Amino acid sequence: MSAIGGAIIARGIGKYYKRYPSRWSRLAEWLDRGGIRHARHWVLRDVDLDIQPGESIGIIGHNGAGKSTLLKIITGTTQASTGSVQVSGRVAALLELGMGFHPEFSGRQNAFMAGQLLGYSSAEIAARMDDIEAFAEIGSYIDQPLRTYSSGMQVRLAFSVATAIRPDILIVDEALAVGDAYFQHKSFDRIRQFRDQGTTLLFVSHSAGAVKALCNRAILLDGGAILRDDAPDAALDYYNALVARREAEQAIRVAEADTGQRTTRSGNGDARILQIDLLDADGKSVRALRSGERARIRMQFETVRELPALSAGILIRDALGNDVFGTNSYHHGIAIAPATPGQGQIEFAFDNLALGRGGYSITAALHSRDSHLADNYDWWDRAVVFQVVPGGRPLSIGICDLAVTITAR
Amino acid sequence: MNVATLHPVMFRSLWNYRAFVVGAVRREFQTRYLGSLLGGAWAVLNPLAMIVVFTVVFSQVMGSRLPNNSGGAFGYSIYLCAGLLPWNLFAELVGRLNTVFVDNGNLMKKASFPRICLPTITLLSTLIHFAITFFLFLLFLLLVRALPGAPLLALAPVLTILLAFSLGLGLLLGTFNVFFRDVAQFTSVLLQFWLWLTPIIYLADVLPPALRDVMRLNPMTPLMDALHAIFVEQAFPHWSGLVYPAILAVFLLALGGASFLRLSGEIVDEL
Question: Which of B31, B180, B268 sits opposite A77 (nearest CB)?
Fold first, then answer.
């Protein structure tokens, strides 16, 4: 495994922090070589990267998705706990501007200090001092103590120093783009210029526009893993859907907690639904899904006494209460095992949840035969409420999202 | 992590960052005298005052003398400076290395540079201060015509052992201090006792024989004996006595270096 100038190759990198129950337990672990007393808190897991020289890559994801950790491992600030990473060439990271600055020294002296911290030699900095001064546009302030600078001037100076020499790899966190609009444009121009000259660019951003404009590839991180590594458009669409889904999910969980006690429950109680849950493709409990996603409805139940027959049904309704889809195990010819009292579980799996965007509810029932009109053991109205958010498929309207192919002649 | 493969990389990256190391040492110097009128002159005035107190005041005002008045009027002053100035180097280096990672935690978390730069900066800036002070002491010896001749050459191995010992111990304690902040507290207590358990301010002869045996375990004792031999007796030290501190210094340097390399990744996580 080797990397050429500007390339980044990572294999299975992961990062965990050790969490000790107390300070003493770390000491105990040190003294007792065999015993491990810490818990691992993973923030990044199994990340593979193949970045070619000259690529420009947007890194997107929620706060806490692992973006900074990944970048810190690439710059070498933090050590990966697992895997290996090879970074070749000079790396400049605009993750923390103004490191190495001292308020009492002049701008010129600070430019030297910050440059030295980046690994530049004094001669390299001296040769570029005029450029740094000119780009920062702080005029005669360059020989004044840094404490007399406005925060915008400090950022300008720091940016000028950090980008004084074109690096092989440039890592930029857009959150740093403070300062006035004029300087933002100027700094983006310089970033773009570096990219065009062959610098590999890693660009952290929440702004879709900036990623689309600057990058030819985007990596979506979520929960410490790469969720999507794709063209910027595709990755951003996925990310936006993820955001929409997370927000919808949040709202429903809050509402569920409020209204949980007020749903209609009826039946003779010979069998009882213990829990209804909606799961996504990974088996995670969710309350927001995208059209066309794989999903499962899981019902856990118990029977109180010996029953002649038992079948389980579900009914999906839209926000207005219209029946959208319903079926039960009797119609599918599935026999539910326990004739004797005990607990059981039944799942309704959808390969393609062809629902249009909007709010839906799931009603679940346990009854003896084909419908709840015969022997109704338990009927739980609106047991779960969920939201279908757009994403993944072409935009459509209506309560169902039929997979359609359009051809033109 | 393979420690053996890290060594060359570590020193190469240290070389690449030499501008940063030199710049940081100079900056530390500048920061200390920032805003003062005399500026860098204080770097000389301060140790000069110390030397004057130890020499003129002790010999002329207080009349401190070595037994049998050996070494003349300045005998005790020379004895004191020969031991105390290197001891101060040791104590300052160990003390500052103890907190070097904790003090630079913010920088380590946010910037990527070879971590070995930090102890190197501490080492260099401590050495510069020691060099100024020790130069003034040698100047004083020249003035009172007590400058040892050839035995001065023995200073090189003695100070090398002292530095290796300090660096190894400081690096070891500094690494541990990141995880257990008790280490720095403990060290400052330890150093105070250690000074009085070493024949620097007093002569070893004043101690009861039982205590003198214990003192032989103290690796600083043979180093001080060697320094006293050079400056007070103006003779080459007994080399055999230096074997014990030299072995200990190499051992500590290896141990300190290994624990630093092993834990340097975790240090950043912990800060």
Answer: B268
- Specify the number of domains making up chain B: 1
- Min distance A229 CA to chain B CA atoms (Å): 27
- Tokens of residue B62, six digits: 């207080």
Q: Does A188 touch chain B (CB under 8 A)?
A: no
Chain B CB within 8 Å of residue A165 CB? no
Q: Answer yes or no: do B111 and A78 touch at CB < 8 A.
A: no
What is the value of pTM for the model shown?
0.72
For B261, the domain range is 3-270
**What is the domain-level CATH number for residue A318?**
2.70.50.60
Can you name the residues that pair with A318 across neighbouring β-strands?
A360
Domain containing A144 — which CATH number?
A: 3.40.50.300
DSSP string, A44-112: EEEEEEEE-TT-EEEEEE-TTSSHHHHHHHHHTSS--SEEEEEE-S-EEEESSTTTT--TTSBHHHHHH
Residues on chain A touching B34 (C-beta within 8 angstroms): 104
Which residue in the set A78, A104, A112 is minimally distant from B23, CB to CB? A112
Q: How far is A141 from chain B (nearest CA, A)?
A: 19
Mean pLDDT, chain A, rounded, equals 83
> Which secondary-structure segment (H or E) carries A208?
helix A208-214
Could you report the per-residue pLDDT of A322-341, keeping only the tens digit for each? Answer: 889 999 888 888 877 666 78
Q: Contacts of residue B259 in chain A, CB cutoff 8 Å?
A: none
Asked if B113 lies within 8 A of A117 by C-beta distance, the reply is yes
Radius of gyration of chain A (CA): 29
pLDDT at A263 over 70: no
Mean pLDDT of the A274-286 span: 89
The band of A256, judged by pLDDT with boundaries at 50, 70 and 90, is low
Residues A12 and A120 in one domain: yes
Nearest to A79 among B111, B180, B265 (CB): B265
Which chain A residues are within 8 Å of B35, Cβ to Cβ?
A: 104
Per-residue pLDDT of B220-247, as tens digits, reads 999 999 999 999 888 899 898 899 999 9
Distance in angstroms (rounded) separating the CA atoms of residues B271 and B267 = 6
Number of domains in chain A: 2
The pLDDT, as a whole number, for residue A399 is 86
- Residue A18: its chain B contacts at CB < 8 A? 266, 269
Q: Which of residues 6-65 of A touch B (CB under 8 A)?
A: 17-18, 23, 26-27
Is residue A140 over pLDDT 90?
no
